[in-house]
Design a protein that fits this description.
By secondary structure, this protein is of the alpha/beta class. The chain has three domains: 4-146, Globins (Globin-like, Orthogonal Bundle); 153-249, Beta Barrel (Elongation Factor Tu (Ef-tu), domain 3); 266-383, Rossmann fold, CATH 3.40.50.80. It contains twelve helices and twelve strands. A six-stranded antiparallel beta sheet has the order 4-3-6-1-2-5. Strands 10-9-8-7-11-12 form a six-stranded parallel beta sheet, sandwiched between helices. Helix 6 (78-91) packs across helix 8 (119-146). Bound molecules: flavin-adenine dinucleotide (FAD) and protoporphyrin IX containing FE (HEM). Protoporphyrin IX containing FE binds next to helix 5, helix 6, helix 7 and helix 8.
């Protein structure tokens, strides 16, 4: 909890900090990467940095955390902390790196706000920073302990499956022949690859198959450029990685997991490559004797672009009470709808828990429609395949 004196100072300066977040963020990353180029090369996603998409996430989350401390001093924004901690833990962020971020973030704040940053203001925001940092460090430590520590484990690709023109699935086994740790359906792994210029870049990929004893699989959509460059890691995996090659993977992390009983109605909605965690969730639900209705929703450009479609349909067919609703922008076969996902004709049972994954406009539209059908906001869970900027202060 924030001390009373700091709360007064943070409340007074929050508008100024909030209004300058863009500038603070820019200075922060420039300063940190100048002092630690290895962080940009081997830890941060340099595509996100170049595109500017990740930039506001870190400082923005501290402002959101400060707001929460002021408005609900006795609660912690757990959903936000969990999401960040899972991401950090999968990347191997270490406790001592929080000192580096602190140093450069506060230098940026002082540089942008100038004389407004009195010793009192600096002390109050330092308190906010370490409240959040220590909460994250504690969750990250626990996540590592549950997985026997963080490490990059070599996994051999045992099969590469072409799903669609743009999506391939990699099936992998530990190259060291050791046992495979359990994961929870809906989770992702971080994958680290060495690129041609020597950088080691890390990306997350959702595990797209059922949790199994000795294998993992994930499915990668190639990101095509155009006005912007082609995706670095998805391009590398598509162009270079074949059966017999070895990839470095983290253990599985992520908070889009099922925590409901067999009598809770479920709705699983995805669009495009957002299908990956949904097939894992569906495989798990189909094998778990779930009794309540399960509504499966997916939208894609066409049936030929619908990655993992056969799995999607086969797992849904195993459900005791499953219904399937697919939308395609073109070539919709009999039984599917044409156009974008629109839940108007889809019955949603009272008490439904929803799990969503797809691009931000899809998430926004589906969330709104679900709330219109009486689904509680707290019952809507989602994964987004990039920095979580589409909805401030979720959950
Ligand atoms: C939890 C989670 C789970 C995920 N699961 C999956 C999954 O199951 N399957 C999957 O395919 N993906 C998944 N992703 C997305 C994946 O992690 C990568 O983000 C994706 O593969 C793109 O990475 P890339 O290296 O190919 O692209 P990057 O090189 O990171 O590029 C990303 C974008 O930035 C643009 N960019 C790069 N440089 C610039 C520049 N200078 N100016 C402007 N724009 C620029 C690129 O054009 C591209 O559009 C997941 C992400 C998360 C966070
Ligand atoms: C209190 C301190 C910190 C806060 C509040 C914070 C916040 C965040 C947030 C909000 C995200 C985006 C999560 C998402 O939605 O996907 C993120 C991602 C990330 N964070 Fe942190 N972070 C902190 C400290 C650190 C530290 C110490 C490091 C290591 C130097 C670090 C490295 C990263 C990286 C590499 C990513 C992924 C970014 C990308 O791949 O582009 N963070 N962090």
């Amino acid at each position: 909890m924030l001390s009373e004196q700091s709360a007064v100072t943070v409340r007074a300066t929050l508008p100024a900090v909030g209004a300058s977040l863009g500038e603070i963020t820019e200075r922060f990353y420039a300063g940190m990467f100048a002092a630690h180029p290895e962080l940009l090369r081997d830890l941060f996603n340099r595509g996100n940095q170049a595109a500017g998409t990740q930039r506001r996430a870190l400082a923005g989350s501290i402002a959101a955390f400060a707001t929460q401390l002021l408005e609900h001093p006795d609660e912690r924004p757990d959903a936000m902390l969990q999401r960040i901690a899972h991401k950090h833990a999968s990347l191997g962020v270490t406790a001592d790196q929080y000192e580096i971020v602190h140093e450069h973030l506060f230098a940026a704040i002082a540089g942008v706000l100038g004389d407004a940053v009195t010793p009192e203001v600096a002390a109050a925001w330092t308190e906010v920073y370490w409240l959040m940092a220590n909460a994250l460090i504690a969750i990250e430590r626990r996540l590592h302990e549950e997985r026997g520590g963080h490490g990059w484990r070599p996994w051999e690709v045992v099969e590469r499956i072409t799903e669609t023109a743009d999506v391939v699935t990699f099936r992998l086994r530990p190259a060291d022949g050791g046992p495979v740790r359990d994961f929870r359906a809906g989770q992702y792994v971080s994958v680290r690859v060495a690129l041609a210029d020597g950088a080691r870049q890390i990306r997350q990929y959702s595990l797209s198959g059922a949790p199994g004893p000795d294998e993992r699989q994930f499915s990668v959509k190639r990101v095509h450029g155009g006005p912007t460059p082609d995706g670095e890691v998805s391009g590398h995996l598509h162009a270079r990685v074949r059966a017999g090659d070895v990839l470095e993977l983290s253990e599985a992390y992520g908070d889009l997991v099922l925590d409901v009983g067999a009598d809770t109605p479920l709705l699983l909605a995805s669009a495009g490559i957002g299908v990956t965690p949904m097939t894992a969730l569906l495989a798990h639900i189909a094998g778990s004797g779930h009794r309540a209705p399960v509504t499966v929703v997916h939208g894609d450009r066409s049936p030929a672009d619908h990655a993992l479609r056969a799995d999607h349909e086969a797992y849904a067919a195993k459900l005791a009470a499953g219904t399937v609703h697919f939308w395609y922008e073109q070539d919709a076969p009999a039984g599917a709808y044409t156009g974008y996902v629109d839940l108007t004709p889809v019955p949603v049972a009272p008490g439904t828990r929803a799990y969503l994954c797809g691009p931000p406009p899809f998430l926004r539209a589906v969330r709104e429609q679900l709330m219109g059908k009486g689904v509680a906001p707290a019952g809507i869970h989602y994964e987004v395949f990039g920095p979580d900027l589409w909805q401030a202060g979720r959950g």
